[in-house]
User: Fold these one by one.
Assistant:
Number 1:
Amino acid sequence: LGLVGHTASRLWGERTGRIALLTGAGTTWLVLNSHFLSLDAGLCAALTLALCGFLLGQQAQAEGRPRSSWMLAAWAGLALAVLSKGLVGLLIPGAVLVLHSLWRLDFRIWRAMRWGPGLLLFALITVPWFWAVSARNPDFAWFFFVHEHFDRYLKPDHNRSGPAWYFLPFLLLGFLPWTSALPWLTRVRRSDFASSFLLLWAGFVLLFFSISSSKLPSYILPMFPALVLLLAPAIERASQRALAWHLGLPALLWLGGGLAWLLAERIAGSDSDPVVAHTLLNGIGLASALFLSACGLAWWLLRRNRRLLAVGVVGISHCACVLIGLQAHNGYGLQKSSAELVQAVPEAFDPAVPVYAVRSYDQTLPFYLRRPVTLVDYRDEFSFGEA
């Protein structure tokens, strides 16, 4: 978020930078994924560094400063992205650079890449770890670069397939409360380097993972910082009336959450824990009341031409609402966790007592035990390590 705000500030002015920071802070998918232990969050952070580095490096070149340190920051972002999830950390930025240069018939960005020091920095960050892990595990290179990249992308063997439109619901819900502004983001001129680059970045991430044979909701996370960067100047250009109407969609959705709270007795079925269900519905009701109040305040501020403050109210309140929803959902999370299980078996904490997981594997079990668990008659994605 800091990178996004700083980049928007440098490209379009300090006020737009503040808008980018506030809109990003309230974007659902960024808030949610910051609460999951996932490689995709780290990949998103690294690719955001690469994206912002490219944009600010190109701006420096346009201003007559071709040796900008921001381009080296972009190379560092590429290296960290490769360490996080492999070749996709090079593929996304590289493909967008090529496609963008061909679309605009402008290849000047390639001369500002600082290839010598950039490649050296990239190698210094990536090579030591890949060298060390390959020395200890001779089959690592094949497993990681072939099986985990090409096989996972091209073959449906990992049971993570989905239709071509699989990511669209996650995009529409994940970009709340700004979803209705998505059409604004396509109104960019090809001659505008930053906006056209950001649009192509977001579109490529969505298309690339949509045609993959392996899909998980968090895969499209790297497109959201680009969308937030596109959104900030669009909000700055929009009329007060357009912004006020835009708040109608998220307000309507949260109103549905308030209705769910009112109908809690009917919605909480007999097959679920009533305490857990009512906690979730009460949390949704509280979040709904908070966001609807924030929308009312934002509408009032927009009528008085307080655009930045209105955006801040919506962004911060929506972040708070998502966090309230997460906390209220925690009861369901505990039902799928082994936290209470390990507390019920204190002998499992004794290092002398072996612990086996037979024909199943709960990923939270080693975490709460703070020790390894021996898998019995279970392979799934552990085939490489067990072979």
Note: The chain is about 70% helix and 0% strand.
Number 2:
Amino acid sequence: DQHDWMTPRRGDWIARLEDVILGSDGPVVLVAHSLGCILTAAWAQVSRSTTRVQGALLVAPGDPERDELRGVLPSWAPIVRDRLPFPSLLLGSHDDPYCSLAKAQSLADAWGSRFIDCGLCGHINAESGLGDWPDGLALLRELTDPKDI
């Protein structure tokens, strides 16, 4: 949970993620959607707790560098492009209105994530009609068994 969903600030979100990870017992698997993917990379750049993360499932990253989003999300650009220090899968869609497939692929490359092309799934959310999304659950399970990544 974040304290302000309507005016998200990267620094605040990083601090909250750090608190949650430090407060958890055992290894952590991150599941991030949209701006949460950008948060994961920004947090990993500054945190000393990254060894607690077993892996990350990064679904439909948002693109706060797009002209129409820069004014709404000023603290989120530029996107951190450092390689993530833990295994990760990044899922992108051909028709995501918030991030082009090419941008999603370039983020996967920068972060060292395995890229998964989800086809025409929009922003890969409830509106995408995926239901319980068994394929997503299978990908999440891969992160709990790192030999599969």
Note: Strands lie at 28-34, 53-61, 88-92, 114-117.
Number 3:
Amino acid sequence: ARAELGHRERGPDPAHAGEQANGTTGKRARVVVFWGPVGSPGRSLVALNYAVECALGDEDVVLLDADTYGASQAVQLGLLDEAAGIAQICRTVDSGRFDATKLERICAPVVIAGARMRVATGLPRASRWPELRPTALRRAVLALQEGCDTIVVDVAAPLELDEELSFDTAAPQRNGVTAAMLRVADEIYAVGAADSIGVPRLIRALEELHEVLGELEMKVVFNKVSAANVGASPRQALAETWERFGPEIPVAAYLPHDAAAVDAALLAGSALAEIAPHSGLRVAIAGLAGRRIRAKTPLLRRF
């Protein structure tokens, strides 16, 4: 991804917007959270490309890497940021004087396929997780809602909130960030790998989420869908399996497995829209974001 020089100018924002997230501007961005079970189902990849598709649709997008175990958005975008934008955002909120504009300026501006968005890079080392306080990040998201159209949040899988059992006083909660973002979300996508291991993991993770956080409206995204993993007619097989064994949560998308396109995008530090714009995976993620993109039809060779 290419860093964008300078910052997009905006109109004046009310002072202390972070303290009045639903204040006088009348603008409120939607918050879209990508979560999923352990085992690398591809939630970070889907979150990044979903954010890019929203930006290509003329939305003002902020992508937050709030994974306290293995942040990867900076790596996917080829950004070298030891400072961790997400940690800087939390420190700024804790200082007490902040607004949407100030928080956006902390995020790294990037341009992908001609679309501009901002990215709050995650923690380069997982040991720094205490720097992300759930309350501070929640206040930041509420403030950012006044300055953009869409906030995409990439969170970690674990949900257990029993850290306080090991402390006599109030304890930091590593998984509290995920819980806080899921609670503040307008849309939640649970990303699961479409194979014999990924589907049961997703079902168990959704049961755990319900036990910890109660009822949350969400949709399922099956990633890495292929005949090799599921068998003939993989989409139909997954739909039937989900109807039989899964909870009553709708499936929003079946994303095809395209290792070549994903590897090329990672190697280039970019997104599918720029590296593999006609791949089936890019088309499917664009559809998830509400954009219609046609896959490139291979030319028939005459013999």
Note: The two ends are 42 Å apart (CA to CA).
Number 4:
Amino acid sequence: MRGLYLFLALFSYSLFAADINDPFEDINRSIFNLNESVDKNFLKPVAKVYSKTPKPIKKGVTNFFNNLQEIETSINQVLQGKPKRAFNDISRFIINSTIGVGGFVDVASKLGIQSHDEDFSQTLALWGVPSGPYIMLPALGPSSLRDTLSKPFSSFLSITFHMTETDVNLSLKAIDALETRERLLEVESLIYGDRYNFVKDSYVQFMEYEVKDGIGVEDEFLDDMDDFLIDQ
């Protein structure tokens, strides 16, 4: 469930910023500063209030949004030529949507059915589409040209996109963003040096990890942070 700066929690090592294709750095930095201002003055304070919610409730909300992403993940597994994983992920959705009370309880994981995270940007990467230049998007945060162009398709695959009730749709998206931001409160200390470059480096590494499904990428810190995010 990617959103805001989720990837910041995943990596302890860093690429050199100069190695990243960032031809729009001046514009990107301006947008980054704007995003930081909104986060500091609105998102973070609200997330701190939400953090006081009982842990079982927060866990249920996290499970709910993770479950909504299983459809997109399943379709992209098919597009990437991974039918077994697609069956695995659609099974997770069915089990958690029924026995798991609408996805609030992750029954599938307790049954040993592993979760995955695939989106259309990863599918395009597997098809050989280059990432293109680094882009900082207003509100949405770090991206690349490939990731940005994939967003309409990913949005179409999301369950919330097809909800006819606009108020419900917007409310779910707002809660999703809040839930994601709250889970990052305890890992913000990982950011060091130039915040813009750190975010950029982390994003590029996160996408590389996702595209490769973690194969060939070993990091004890990564494993620890995966456990942290899952436990929240």
Note: The first helix runs from residue 25 to 50.
